[in-house]
Model the fold of this input.
Amino acid sequence: MRQFLTVDDIGDVDSALTEARILKRNPHGFSYLGKNKTMILLFFNSSLRTRLSTQKAARNLGMEVIVLDVNKDSWKLESEYGVIMDGDKPEHLREAIPVIGSYCDIIGIRSFASLTDKEADYTEELINQFIEFSGVPIVSLESATRHPLQAFADLFTIEEYKRKSKPKVVLTWAPHPRALPQAVANSFVEWMKVSDVDLVVTHPEGYELDPSLMEGVKVEHDQKKAFENADFIYAKNWSSFTHYGQILSKDRSWTVDEEKMALTNEAYFMHCLPVRRNMVVSDGVIDSSRSIVIPEAANRVVSAQVVLKRMLEKL
Ligand code: SN0
Done:
């Protein structure tokens, strides 16, 4: 695997899940694979789970890991081409990317959507430059439009907790004080579409996701109706795709609370975290026995480890 950005990069999902089970049971069984190999993790944005779980996964595989907070610890990087660099950015990505690539065997990158330039975000301008110029395999640690390590961990978690072969999985939009990317929702939809689940997406008008992703996906604008008989409730805020990057609603009647969870088939509650309590989800739901946000986060090590193992095997 030379890149991990979308669900297409993982190939057969069932074999990826089988590998995840093996690695979860035996996390240190392949520590020879990463011997004398180095991974660099580059963060253009904040991270807790991704930063820690990806390091843990790389170390389980025997790799050395270097973490760089680009905005804090490095030169400010210019990304535009053809500009006269007389401003506050001393280094261009065109040099920085191959330099970073020369120090390591795999690069992981987190760089959120700008939410101002839809075209640049949805063509994945930044991560594609890393793919083109770094000379090493690239792992998305959340790019402008995708968060594949999260969605893979989510799918694995659903597999672990499901009580029927084809569970009903509901992705619900929830209110938030800030404009957030669509990446987590996009990846969740993309990974659920290739899995054996009955997926329903619910959101207020104006929060339609990228139509090319939503082809064949059920949308129910009545959140309560969507919750009926659900086996998993996956909550997430995202900003508008059509009115790109805008907050159209902060309506707290969309908050996931006990009353709505009572409509479900004793559904499990999931969220990628970090989560705004009593905006996205009530304390009562996230603190209940139905909440699986902690095991879901723990599975981030597993999804990262499957991806890194496959990359190491192909180096
Ligand atoms: C990011 C997002 O894409 O939604 C990362 C999720 C893994 N979330 C946030 O930036 C939340 C920040 C906040 O203010 O709550």
About this structure: The two ends are 9 Å apart (CA to CA). Residues 178, 180-181, 183-184, 272, 274, 276 surround N-(3-carboxypropanoyl)-L-norvaline (CB under 6 Å). The chain has two domains: 3-146+298-314, 151-296.
